Amino acid sequence: WVRAGKPATEHLDVPEPGSSAAPFGVSDVVTRVDPASAGVSRPPSAFPRSAESKDEVDSRLREAVDALLESPALDNEAEVDGPPEFVSTEHGSRLALIESLMAPVLTEVVAIIAARDVDWDREWLELVPSLAPNPRLSGSTDLINLRRAPGVFLYHFAGCAAAAFRRDDLIGRLLSEHLVVDDPYRGEAPAAATLTPDVVYPSGFASRCLHDFVIRGLSDAGVLGRRTAEECWARWTYLYSVQATYLSSLGFSSFSGWPHLEVEGTHQTALRVTVGKTIRREFAEYRDEHASLRSGLCGSSFELFEAAAITFESNYGSWASDRDWVALPTG
After folding, report:
1. Less CB within 10 Å around the terminal CB: N or C of the chain?
2. CA distance 189 to 274
């Protein structure tokens, strides 16, 4: 992790759409009924710690990861079976500890993402599979899955941070079939098919729980305000859901609950994913040259992306139409 070189963070110029640093193109939050277009938020112009070297960031990241892995919540000797009351209590306390120890890890990863250094990205990306290991244990699935929680948190937080800094190239790498983890049930599988929110949150609306953690983390890291953080969540989660739909066509079944995304329309018509229209228009303009597709999203094919997007939106709209809107964003 120790690398000498240019500062880890630097001023971020606003890039051209569809480039390797494409704008996320997410509209302001709008109501579900008769939504109106709004302006696109600008990404952070700079990360606060612009004078720091790679060595300093790498050192702190290494220390944060070590502290996380040494946590009693991830101790291989910790009990992972017992009566329901024990499992429920232990899951809550261990999850709270993991969430708190993830904060310094995520702060340093944000600094690296902001630097736009592809080689440096390669180093922290290796943390995703290492923080989501296959525990090979028997006992309570809920407690065993917590061993993989750091990888889930890192994966989705990094995706939202990549959206914040207009790193469409990095979003493509995260969602690519080439980023694989050791899944307890399927062996090696794409991260997008196995690092699902329900791994961490086995009950309730798992994606909404993950959303709350990510939004809080982006705010605590000093990267984004609430509204822009919500836009970045929407962009990442939409693309993640489209990729999961694409992967299901390849035999990687990954459905484990619906994502926490805003919809628009009325109960008398099919609901639409609010962010979908803007993103699909952006991808249609650049087609196979879009940075996320060039980096591996949907097999690097615009046609495959569009087909998966249509399927996902249709399925999600049908599900959302049957839901109490209070379960969805701004409901």
Report:
1. C
2. 30
